[in-house]
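Take a record:
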Amino acid sequence: MRRQIDKSVVINRVKRTPAVIFIRGILPFVILFLIMCITFLVGVWNVKEIEYDESKLSNISTVQLDSYLSEFVGKNIFTVNPDDVKSVLINNNKYIKDVYIKKVLPSKLSITINEFLPLYVGYSSDRCILFSDTGSLILELCTNCEEKCIVNDETKGKVYIKSTSVLESEDKLIYFNEISKVQKILSEFGYFIIEININNGIAEFTDEEGKIFVFDLSNGLDTQLARMYAIGGKINEDIMKFSRLDLRFKRPVMDIK
């Protein structure tokens, strides 16, 4: 009996030593660290799946996105930089406006993409170019292809712009702000533009019914817009039928049908 008591006392004394107390204190963390090391080694935290919000995709396929992001599959999810993923996507596809990335542990990337809305197709300098609703260049569809540019599947339902001079500069639609202002005020009076012809800054806007509105985009546009605003209501009120309205002059010139 005495020998058992002495053994118990020794064990208790050992348990109270600083070294044992320290080891007991850090043991859970050591175990957790070892488990984490093992999971890293066997690839538990490697990216195995990339998920997309397909409801947001109109002009881009998940197959394309997978091909852009193949380099990130198999990488440790903690080392994947969302900014790098975003950069790869935007640099590879001009339809992509913005990207939101969420890491879903242990091994999935959840990606939501906002696309540019293609709205304008421009033809100038023998180039057919698709622009977004913000005036950003999306892509060049073809060259030396005016007829194809008009009937291309990707251009259907877009505003067609033809110009005698260059339409694009630094990946932006030239005269975009001016064109937007004109479209906005015309739409307020029920005129929805489908085609624009620009020659040395003079633009003819053609609506769905074939009516033509003429503006000088390079000089005094705000004054011309004010004229349109002043007479637009009267035109609709009097149900005036016309084929062409030129807003460049103090007294707008109207061709009556």
Q: What stands out?
A: The helical segments are 2-15, 18-41, 62-68, 82-92, 146-151, 176-188, 221-237. The chain is about 35% helix and 30% strand. The chain has a mean pLDDT of 87.
